[in-house]
Amino acid sequence: MDEYDEKATLAVPIVYQGEVLGMLDVGESRWNRRYTEDEVRLLTAIANQAASAIHNARTFEESRQRATELVTLLEVSETLSSSNDVDEMLAVLCEKLRIALGVFSAEAYVYDKAAGTILMVASSDLEPIDLGDWDGSYLVSDVPMIARAIGDMQTVAAQVDDPDLPEVSRQDMLRWGERSSLSVPMIHGGGVVGLVYLSETRERHVFGARDTRLATAIAAQGAVAVENARAYSLIARQAITDGLTGLYNHGHLQERLEQEVARAKRHGTNLSVIMLDIDDFKQFNDTYGHPQGDKLLKEIAQVLLTSTRLNVDLVARYGGEEFCILLPNTPPQIALGDEPTDDNVRTGQSAAIVAERIRATVAADRFEGYPSRREAAVTVSIGIASLPASADTGDDLVANADKALYLAKREGKNQVRPYGA
Q1: Are residues 404 and 417 in contact, defined by beta-carbon separation less than 8 angstroms?
Q2: Rounded CA separation 195/205 (Å)
Q3: I want to staple 405 with a disulfide (CB 3.0 to 4.6 A). Which of 273, 334, 383, 419 is the partner?
Q4: Residue pair 274/325 in contact by the 8 Å Cβ criterion
């Protein structure tokens, strides 16, 4: 009272149903006085009115916040149920959560348990962020607060000025200018499938119970969406994949062949087809058994994959021991006078170069004949056809490449034959 030059003071608690919500304080600095019982009753009545007003305001604000949460959850749910694109779904999740909580940034990561890493697949930021040379991934063990969120499957809040914050986490927050963060694991089926990471760079933001509640609810929806999308992707992949070799199956080959023929004609480019058959495969099976024959098919499939262009060429199991490869924008032969070099062999400049690379690789290798004994020599015969040089339709491409393949068989096997040569 001396500090504030008060002569008299009257303090009345603001109480609602036994809970203290605040205090009314009346002070007199001009003269000494004593407050009367009437004045106490008046101030108490005012405090009671204030208590009701504060309670009603808080109830209204809680209802408003709850309504906002429900709307946000509904919007996220509608988006997640209408798409199978994980990146798109998580981008919406981040945006809705960032806006609902009023933070600077929201990021979504998928978790690779085997590798012990998380990879950012979506984010929503109030302003553009320069990621520099960062590739969007973390080794979980390098960031203790994220490791704790994933390991304990619990939400973890962090403040950069917290003296108990691990130094490596502090340095990471300082790197991005973060003052507060919230790490929320996405949990499904008793395990972590990803992480939602919220951060604030503008001011110290204390993430409260509401923040945690909403972030956890949305993260749970994100986890279901991630798992559903993964399951859908797996089913879709299985529908177009050969179960033994992991290559595309005959049905998907026909679908892609039609698309590539149309594209080649539209752009006036080459489309080559390689048909390949394992020489004397029946004899291999008779000698070593069908399980070893299956292993051989798998190993040949890997040779084909490593000898072709990722995400450009298509490698499929055509049937039995026969394989087919689509080579978009690839001529059957290199140009006249353009001798093969290490570089154009490596880049697959022509179908003939790709085919010869495959043939030579298989012939030089040794495959598992008797179990655990790589002693079997195997060769392949290959036929090539190309649009527009030797065919005009997809069916003709495959048929003519198949004719060239059987010409290679008749002429001694272990060789490459272009159609019409």
Answers
A1: yes
A2: 20
A3: 383
A4: yes
Task: Report the alpha-carbon distance of residue 285 to residue 374 in Å, rounded.
Answer: 15
SS3 of 274, please?
Answer: strand
| Contact indicator for 140, 165 with CB cutoff of 8 Å | no
Backbone torsions φ then ψ of 151, nearest 5 degrees: -65, -45
Strand positions, DSSP E, 179-239? 180-188, 191-200
pLDDT digits (tens, 9 = 90+) for 4-59: 888 999 999 999 999 999 999 998 888 888 899 998 999 999 999 998 888 888 87
Percent of the chain's residues with pLDDT above 70: 90
Q: For the chain, how big is the Rg over CA atoms in Å?
A: 35
Residue ranges of the chain that CATH labels 3.30.70.270: 250-418
Question: Who has greater pLDDT, 86 or 289?
Answer: 289
Distance CA 292, CA 324 (A): 22
Distance CA 41, CA 190 (A): 58
Q: Which residues of 312-336 are buried (b: 16+ CB within 10 A; e: fewer)?
A: ebbbbbbeebbbbbbbbebbbbbee
Angle, vertex CA 155, rays to CA 152 and CA 158, nearest 5 = 110
What pTM did the predictor assign? 0.54
CATH fold group of domain 83-237:
Beta-Lactamase (3.30.450)
How do residues 313-336 score in pLDDT, each as one tens digit? 999 999 999 999 999 999 988 554
Distance between first and last Cα of the chain: 109
Tokens 């002693």 belong to residue? 375
> Rounded CA gap, 256 and 299, in Å?
24
- What's the DSSP call for residue 59? H
- Per the CB < 8 A criterion, the answer to whether 318 and 297 are in contact is no
Angle at 36 between CA 32 and CA 42, to 5 degrees: 120
| Closest C-alpha among 321, 348, 84, 76 to residue 226 | 84
Q: Where in the chain is the domain with CATH 3.30.450.40?
A: 83-237
